[in-house]
Amino acid sequence: MSLLQIDQLRVTFQTRHGAVTALDGVSLSLNAGETLAVVGESGCGKSITALSVMGLISSPPGRIAGGAVRLAGEDLTHASEARLRAVRGAEVAMIFQEPMTSLNPVLTVGDQIAEAILLHQDMTRSEAWTQAVALLDRVGIPSAAARAKDYPHQLSGGMRQRVMIAMAVSCRPKVLIADEPTTALDVTVQAQIFDLLNEMQRDFGVAIMLITHDMGAVSEMADRVAVMYAGRVIESGAADDVLDAARHPYTRGLIGCIPSVDHGGALAEIPGVVPPLHLLGAGCAFAERCAHVREGCRLARPELQGGAHSVACFGAQEGWV
Amino acid sequence: MSLMQVRDLRVEFPLPRPRPFAPRPVLQAVRGVSFDVAEGRALGIVGESGSGKTTTAMAAIRLQEAASGQVLFEGTDLLGLDAAQMRARRRDIQLIFQDPYSSLNPRARVGDIVREPLDLLGVGSVSERGARVRDLFAKVGLREDQMALFPHQFSGGQRQRISIARALAPGPKLLVCDEPVSALDVAIQAQILNLLARLKAELGLAYLFISHDLGVVRHVCDEVAVMYLGQIVERAPVGDLFARAQHPYTQALLAAAPSLGRRRSRGFKRPLSLRGDPASPSAPPPGCAFAARCPKAAAVCRDVPPALDGAGHQVACHFPG
Amino acid sequence: MTQAAPETPTREAWRMFRRNIPALMGLVILTGIVAAVLWGALVYQGDPFEIVWAPHEPPGVTPEFPLGTDYLGRNIVAGLLAGGGPTLAVGAVAALITMGIGIALGALAGYFGGWVDTLLMRVTEFFQVLPALLFAMVLVTLFSPSLWTIALAIGVVSWPQTARLTRAEFLRIKELEYVTAARAIGAQDGRIMWRVILPNAAPPLIVSATLTVGVAILFEAGLSFLGLGDPNVMSWGLMIGANREYILDAWWPVTFPGLAIFLTVLSVSLVGDGLNDAFNPKLRSR
C-alpha cells in the first residue's frame, strides 16, 4: 500500500461564476522514499492538490466535495483540526515557492526552526536551538551557528529555501510536499536545492511530492509523474515512460514546447490557453486545443485508464493518437 | 552591419551613507560592458539575478542613467543626446517587459495602448493609424474586436502579445526584450518565443534579449553574452556557446539547467554544482569576480581580473576550456 | 471574456454608476440639496437674517415656518435655503484648492524625486505641522472674513494630506513597467504624469477629494461656530454657531443645519465612491 494515497478527490470553490470544480476526481499515490512529480500549467490544480493533502484548503470558499486523502491508511479529509495540526509538520511537511513570504520576518531563522521542533517534540528550548543549528548545518548553510541568529531578509533566496527545507525536515516527516520550490530562484541555486532535496530523501527516507511546471525538473527529480490539466490527472506513470513515450497529446505538447539547452530551432506549440474552469463542458477539457480531436472527445470526458502508465484520452486508449 | 555598439558601459547606484558625512558607497551594477548588436540579429544576454543584465540593457537605451561609456546607435552616441533628441530616437528602439501584468496601463483600452506610440510620433492620418493598429493586432495573433477591451480582460500570453504590438507600432529597428517569457506558462512561452522568432525574420528586427534561461536564448538568439556580477564573461555565436562553453560559469549554468536528457531513473548525478552565492556588487573582488565560486580558481584568478579575449568566441578566464 | 460593444467612456461609466445603489442614492440626495438651494435662491426672496416671528417656535406648529424659528425668531427654512449656497460653495472651492495644490505638489515630488521631492516635502511638512484651525483663524482674521478667504484658508491648511497621498501613489506607480513603456515610446514627463500616472492614482484621490468637501464644510461650520465666519452671509455653520448656546432650550435650530451638513457630506462621499468604481475598468466587466 502507498504511503500517501489520494482517491478520487473532488474540491470545489465558490466563485462569482458559481461553484467551480477545481479538482475533479484526482487520484495519486506516493510510495515511501520515492519522488512523485505533479506537473501542469498554472490553474491545473496541482497546488490545490498539495493544499488538500495538508488540510489547508480555505473553507469557504473551498470545499472537499468528495474522495479521500489517506496517509498510511488514515483518511485526512475527515480528520479533526487537532489531528491535522499534529500531522502537519510532523508527518507531512511543505515548502513553498517564495521562501521570503513563508518565513516570519521578525524572528531569527534559528528561532523559527526551534519553534517548529518544539511544536511537535518534547524537548527544552536550548536543545531545540542546538538541533536547529545542526539542521542548518545539515542543509548546507555555512557557519550555521552564526546564521541561525540572522533574520530572513539577511539571507539570500537560496539560503532562505534551505532554511525552509531545514524546518520541513526538522520533525522527520514521512512526506515532503515541495510546491514549485525553485521557481523564484536562479538556475544554479535551483540545482543546489534539487541536489539538497535528493540528499534529504536519501538520508531521511522522506517521500517527496514535487509540484512543478518544468518538465526538465521532472526528468531530473522524479521517479513517477502525474500530469494534470484543468483539475484532472490526464496521464501518469513512471518518469521514463511518460517522458519518452508520452501518450496524451497535452503531455507531448508540454514536452515539445520546452526551450531546451540541448537543441535550437522552432518550438512545438500548444495553441490556445487553458479554459477557465467555469466554462468546462461535458467533453475532454483539452479538446479545443488538441490536434487529434474527434467528435466523441467533445461529448464525454475520458477517464484515466491503463495500469502503470495510464492516460485519460480516448485517442490514446483506442490507439488513434 | 552593426546597429548598436556598446563600449565600456558602466552603471553605478549610490547606496545610503553608512554614517553622516562618510563617502557615499556605490553599487557597481554594470562594470565595463561592451557588445555589438548587428542589424536583424539577436544578441542574448544571459545571467542570474544581480548579474546586471537588465541594467545593462536599460542603460544602453537610456532608460537608466549610465555612469560612463558609449552607446553608438547607427553611429550616434545615445548617451550624448539631449532629452528631445533621445525621444526622437525612441521610435527605433522599443521594449518588451517581463511582467505582462504591470507593463500595460490598466486604465487604457488595449487598442489605444497600441495606438499611443503612433499618436505621439504623429504617424500618418487618424485612419491610417487605425489601419496600422488593426494590422499590428493581426500580426501578433490578436483579433480586431479585442481592441476595445482593457488589459485585465486578457491572459498573460495575450497581454504579452499586446506588449509586442505596442513595441512594433513605431516600426523599430531594435527590440529590447527583458525576460519576455519568464512570467508565462511553458506552453504559452513557446507561443511567444515562436512569435518573436517569426517577427524577427519577417521584419528584419534586431533583438537585445535578456534572459536567465539559456534554453530560451538558444531558441531565439544568434549570439549570446553571459554576464556575471556586472561583466560579460563569455560571448559567442549561439551554436558555439552551447557546444563549447569555455568559461567555468557558463559551464555551470549549462550543467544546472534542467534537461530532459538527465534522468533520475538512469542515476543522473550533476557534474558540477556551484557553491554559494555571487559576491556583492558593492564590493567586487579585485580579481576574477567568479573566483570564489570557481572550481578551477588559482592564485592568479583572485588577484588579476581576466580580460574578455578572443575573436568570434570571447571568454574572460585565465583557464578557459 | 465578455465582448463589450464600443461605447464612449462616459456612457460606460454612467452605466456602471447606475448599478451602484448607494452611489445613486447619494446622487439623488445631492441633487435634491442642490436643487433646493437653487430653488431657494430663485424663489425665496426674503432676508434670512430678518426676524419674522417669535423666537424658538418649534417645528410643525406654524405652517409658515415648518422647521420653526431660531433664538432671534428667524425662519430656519429660510436660513437653510439661503445658507446652502455659501456652504456648498465654500466646500467645493476649498476642495478644489486642496486638490489643486496637493495633487500638483505631490505629483511633482513623487515623479521627479531627488531634491525636488526633498524641497516640496519639507514645505508640505511645514504646512502639516501648523495647527490647522489656528492657522485658518489667523488667515481669516488677517483678511476680512469673507467666504472666499474662508475657502482659501481651509484649502491652504488641508492640502498637505492630499500632497502626501499623491506623492505616495506616484512613487508606487512610476516604478511600474507601463510607465517605463510610456517613456520608451518617447512620451514626455508631463504626459506621463497627467495621462498615465494620474488616472491610475485617481481612486484614493477621488475618495480624498470627497472627504475634503465634507471636511471643508465642517471646517466652515467650525469657524462660524467660533464666530469667525462671514457674519453677513448666512451659512449652515453660522446657524449652528449662533444657536449653539440655546441647544438645551431648543434642539431644532442646530439640528436641521447639522442634518443638512451631514446629508451633504454623506452624499458627496457616496457619489465619490461611485465615481471611483465607475471609472475603474477592472470593476466594469463584472
Automatic annotation (TrEMBL), chain A:
Membrane as a keyword of this entry, yes or no, is: yes
What is a biological process (GO) this protein takes part in? peptide transport
Could you tell me the membrane topology recorded for this protein? Peripheral membrane protein
* UniProt signal peptide: none
Q: Would the keyword Phosphoprotein turn up in this protein's UniProt record?
A: no
Give one GO molecular function term.
ATP binding
Give the subcellular location. Cell inner membrane
Q: Which UniProt keywords apply?
A: ATP-binding, Cell membrane, Membrane, Nucleotide-binding, Transport
Per its UniProt record, what InterPro entries does this chain match?
AAA+_ATPase (IPR003593), ABC_Ni/Peptide_Import (IPR050388), ABC_transporter-like_ATP-bd (IPR003439), ABC_transporter-like_CS (IPR017871), Oligopep_ABC_C (IPR013563), P-loop_NTPase (IPR027417)
The Gene Ontology CC terms held by the record are:
plasma membrane
Task: Read off the Pfam families from this record.
Answer: ABC_tran, oligo_HPY
Where in this chain does the record put each ABC transporter domain? 4-255
Similarity field: Belongs to the ABC transporter superfamily.
Q: What is this protein called?
A: Stage 0 sporulation protein KD
- Gene (name only): oppD_1
UniProtKB/TrEMBL annotation, chain B:
User: Known CDD domains for this protein?
Assistant: ABC_NikE_OppD_transporters
Query: Its GO CC terms?
Result: plasma membrane
**What Gene3D superfamilies does the record tag this protein with?**
P-loop containing nucleotide triphosphate hydrolases
Chief location bin: membrane
Bilayer topology: Peripheral membrane protein
Cellular localization per UniProt: Cell inner membrane
| GO terms of biological process kind | peptide transport; transmembrane transport
Q: Name one GO molecular function term.
A: ATP hydrolysis activity
Pfam families to which the protein is assigned, alphabetical: ABC_tran (PF00005), oligo_HPY (PF08352)
Name assigned to this protein: Stage 0 sporulation protein KE
Give the species: Tropicibacter naphthalenivorans
Automatic annotation (TrEMBL), chain C:
Q: Which ranges carry the ABC transmembrane type-1 domain?
A: 84-272
- GO biological process entries: peptide transport; protein transport; transmembrane transport
SUPFAM superfamilies membership: MetI-like
Whether Transferase counts among this entry's keywords is: no
Any one Gene Ontology cellular component term annotated for this protein: plasma membrane
| Pfam family, any one | BPD_transp_1
- Where does this protein reside within or beyond the cell? Cell membrane
Where are its TM segments located? 21-44, 88-112, 133-157, 205-229, 250-272
Q: How does it sit in the membrane?
A: Multi-pass membrane protein
Q: What is its main location?
A: membrane
Q: Enumerate the InterPro entries for this protein.
A: BP-dependent_transpt_permease, MetI-like, MetI-like_sf, OppC_N
The protein's UniProt keywords, in alphabetical order, are:
Cell membrane, Membrane, Peptide transport, Protein transport, Transmembrane, Transmembrane helix, Transport
Q: Which PANTHER family match?
A: D,D-DIPEPTIDE TRANSPORT SYSTEM PERMEASE PROTEIN DDPC-RELATED, OLIGOPEPTIDE TRANSPORT SYSTEM PERMEASE PROTEIN APPC
The record's similarity note reads: Belongs to the binding-protein-dependent transport system permease family.
* Protein's recorded name: Glutathione transport system permease protein GsiD
User: According to the entry, what is the taxonomic lineage of the organism?
Assistant: Bacteria, Pseudomonadati, Pseudomonadota, Alphaproteobacteria, Rhodobacterales
Q: Which gene encodes it?
A: gsiD_1
